[in-house]
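Researcher: Can you fold this with glutathione in place?
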Amino acid sequence: MAISLYYFESAPPARSVLMVIAALKLKVDLIRINLSNKEQFAEEFLQRNPTHTVPTLDDNGFIVWDSHAIVQYLVDKYGRTDELYPKSFEERTRVNQMLFFETSILFPSLARAVRPVFYDNATAVPDNKIKNIEASFEFLETFLSVTNYLASNHLTIADICALSTVSTIQIFHQVNNVKYPKLVAWLSKLKSLEFYNVNLDGIQMFTDMFMPLLKKCIKISRETITFSSPIHLVSFIPIIFSIIERPKKLSYTMSVKLHYIEASPAARSVMMVMKVLQFPVEYMELDLSTKDQFAQIFLQLNPAHTVPILDDDGFILWESHAIVKYLVDKFGKTDQLYPKALQERAKVDQMLFYNASVLFPLLRDAVIPIFNAKAPLQSSSVPEDQKRNIDSCLEELEQFLRTSDFLAVNRLTIADICALSILSTINYFKEFSSCNYPKLNKWLNRLRSEHFYRIELDGLRKFSDMFSTL
Ligand SMILES: N[C@@H](CCC(=O)N[C@@H](CS)C(=O)NCC(=O)O)C(=O)O
């Protein structure tokens, strides 16, 4: 038996894994899945990965997909040192935070920029997509002004994952040296490392596939450019759930605090995990009544200006998935919610990344247009294509629940709780047919009977109030 990686060169997430494999000097069998020929939909591959994405790893029969979950697993299992994914608790947490930033903000800024060209006959990357990319670059520049690498003062898997995305963006949009000097220096430092060579074939293939499409001289119609603005991409939560501007003094009485907004699904998942862990937390609710989500005091805590933000005695952490991992590892009396066993942990991580990169954007893309149009939050307000996207994800979830009562392993974990906050919000305005999704409905009902679901109910009420007061 051996380790096999299903990959396609042009896919940046597959290249992140290839680079980590090269950095770890692992021997891995490479199995090419030609996405151009839709080989990812072959039944045999779908059995391994119902979300039909590359990369997918098969480690002697243990299957894990999602590049970020894969690279974490590979370093933990096969790394001779922990350098790329440090075991030191706070360092590891910073890497986790950055991996979730990569999957939910940086990679989508690339994917959404190239999609109109690959699939909608656009002949240029729309300006608003370039703005999204620039917003991501600004974040990266900010992170790099704190540490030499993205999550630490040395190279980690967070850098390698971001590298595959940024190097692909560079094919059509250069990183400006004057605006982002630290990012440019980081890029050239990483490109000089030996493992970078395995990125090159994919960059070439992407260039060959993408650049000729830009050369056609058809003008894109206004209708084609109906994508979200950069601010939507990066800050769904702050826009809708904005923070009041008032002179704030962050004075606390307990050592662990959570800055939250009840209507935010991401914040609610953290609150539910805290409830299960039953330890004292000081909740600091942000006020919705004014729109200054960029109040300096919060930007200092979280340059990505999202809630929730955890403050554990001065250790500041944002990004809900990174927070819940941290909370269970640090405060959990058992590892039930976030298993320590490597393969179980990889499965939970896989689902958390799915949550961050697929489910959360699904909710965001459905809800933001309704919110902007000041329309009522109901199924009829959701465009048909969004409903189709939701349905195909519900089908995937039904597949995940095929052999287990819970999403990641055969018991409740943080993966279920994070998915719950998003799915119950989607379910608020879209019915999940019990005929089509029997297992998903069972799962939802099972979680609804848990004591922590009360938090979800309170939050959903606030969420719907927001729409009714528009
Ligand atoms: N979050 C996933 C994203 C993987 C992904 O979206 N891969 C794309 C290629 S860039 C893919 O396989 N697309 C084929 C499909 O969705 O059918 C990861 O990091 O692995």
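Model: Folded with glutathione in place. The radius of gyration is 21 Å.
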